[in-house]
Design brief:
The protein contains 25 helices and 6 strands. The chain is mainly alpha-helical and about 475 residues long.
Length: about 475
């Protein structure tokens, strides 16, 4: 089994999930790249997490009303779920279809939205938009419950076009007009939220969608060049058949899974980094009937994706969950179970609570002088725990290679264990020179284990490790 094949699998698992242990990479490589892609694209064929023990241990997970409980629960899922792409696609849509607890103050309602991102996230884009248009958390977040036929609120209609489906423009041209925004908002009048059932005596109930036909504007509207007595379903249908929508979805997929794109407001005038791949994804969008799964199949099997290793800055969830999957010590109830979710927050990604409806800016904007320190301190702290299951197993593999190892082998093995990372020549030379002291140590000694931990800590402190 060639190291290049395992390195490619590590790249796939970092992008389509949150990384994998060396043992899992070897196992998946033996299965084959294309077979692994298909397994990732069909998460329903893998068992879901068994949460019974966790729910008994974490009292806040029983009703899921609090923000912190939801953040801890999701972090646990990202680390431990066998359905890695399902969790990654949930995070992907959460960063686009943004709803924040700072306004909703109903974390359990946002959890229901996230569950539907898991259910619909790899399906048809029109089905996903229809779900979103009836999601109580989204309707409340963007004020559509305040939109009436006598007083139209354009917030939902505007963001649906600008941030959720088409974007303001492409190839130097606008994708819609102000009149289209008004028509879109009018078509969604009457799409609102039913009165909540009182909390007592049985606890909190989820809000429900309500279509109030008496509050809907029943008259002809012109939207994207078509005139008729349109309702919300018609708007979604017309949006999804636009070339701009195919481009919008394709660029977001490329930004998440291939390489960092400019921020969305620039897309009208800044062309995609990978125009040939974007064209393939646009074609697949229409060929497959708007299927996200089909677009991702094209993407993951493309040479553009395979060649784009370490071309993306990790988001905080990837930093934290990737490290925890390596150390293998976040798999069961324990004290301070919420700490990893807090680390994600400290690094700038407050899950279920994005800063605005625009979501988080990605790429290099994830890192500043404060968040970089948080990243390095957290991951280095985890890598220094040589008694953790993942690192202990790695040290045992090194011991099986011989009683002593060269400094080049020690550094190379550490890079492989972390996911076949590549260092600059200068950093490689510095680490190799530092590892000379370990080359004289017996691999069976505690001193050797501690030194391996130091090498891992130095690697995750480099600039190169900040990239996926």
């Amino acid at each position: 089994m060639a190291d290049n094949d395992i390195a490619l699998m590590a790249h796939l698992m970092r992008r389509a999930g949150f990384g994998a242990s060396y043992e899992e990479l070897v196992e998946r490589t033996a299965k084959g790249y294309e077979a692994t892609v298909e397994e990732l694209l069909n998460p329903q064929e893998q068992p879901d997490l068994e949460m019974d023990v966790m729910n008994r241990y974490m009292h806040g997970w029983r009703d899921m009303n609090g923000l912190m409980a939801n953040q801890g629960y999701w972090t646990y899922r990202m680390v431990n779920s066998q359905r890695q792409l399902e969790e990654k696609i949930c995070l992907f849509w959460h960063g686009i279809f943004c709803v924040g607890d700072s306004k909703c103050m109903r974390a359990r309602q946002i959890l229901l939205e996230l569950n539907n991102f898991r259910n619909y996230g790899l399906g048809k884009f029109d089905d996903l938009l229809m779900y979103l248009s009836t999601d109580p958390a989204m309707l409340y977040y963007l004020d559509n419950q305040l939109s009436h036929k006598e007083a139209v609120n354009e917030n939902w209609g505007r963001e649906l076009l600008e941030l959720f489906s088409m974007g303001v423009g492409m190839d130097g041209e606008p994708n819609y007009t102000e009149d289209d925004v008004k028509a879109c908002a009018q078509a969604f009048t009457g799409w609102t939220i039913a009165n909540a059932i009182p909390r007592y005596p049985y606890g909190s109930y989820a809000n429900r969608f309500l279509y109030n036909r008496y509050d809907h504007i029943e008259e002809d509207k012109t939207f994207l060049g078509e005139t008729g007595n349109w309702n919300g379903e018609d708007i979604v249908r017309m949006i999804c058949k636009q070339p701009a929508t195919a481009r919008f979805v394709a660029r977001h997929l490329s930004n998440c899974f291939v390489s960092d794109e400019p921020q969305v407001p620039a897309w009208q005038h800044v062309p995609p980094q990978h125009p040939e791949l974007i064209k393939e994804l646009e074609d697949e969008y229409f060929r497959s009937g708007y299927q996200i799964k089909s677009m991702l199949r094209v993407l993951f099997n493309s040479d553009t994706f395979k060649d784009a290793r370490f071309a993306k800055v990790k988001n905080p969830s990837e930093v934290v969950c990737g490290a925890l999957r390596v150390v293998g010590d976040f798999t069961e109830p324990k004290p301070r179970l919420y700490d990893p979710a807090l680390e994600i927050r400290y690094m700038g990604q407050d899950l279920l609570n994005p800063p605005t409806v625009e979501g988080w800016h990605t790429g290099k904007e994830w890192i500043d002088s404060g968040t970089l320190v948080e990243r390095i301190n957290f991951v280095a702290g985890e890598m220094g725990r040589v008694d953790s299951p993942g690192i202990n197993a790695f040290i045992d593999r090194l011991r099986a290679e011989g009683s002593t190892l060269s400094s080049e082998r020690i550094v190379g093995a550490c890079l492989e264990m972390l996911g076949f990372y590549e260092l600059s020549d200068d950093n490689q030379a510095l680490l190799t020179a530092h590892a000379e002291d370990a080359s004289s140590l017996d691999t069976g000694t505690p001193e050797f284990a501690q030194f391996v931990g130091q090498i891992l800590q130095l690697i995750v402190s480099t600039q190169e490790y900040q990239f996926n």
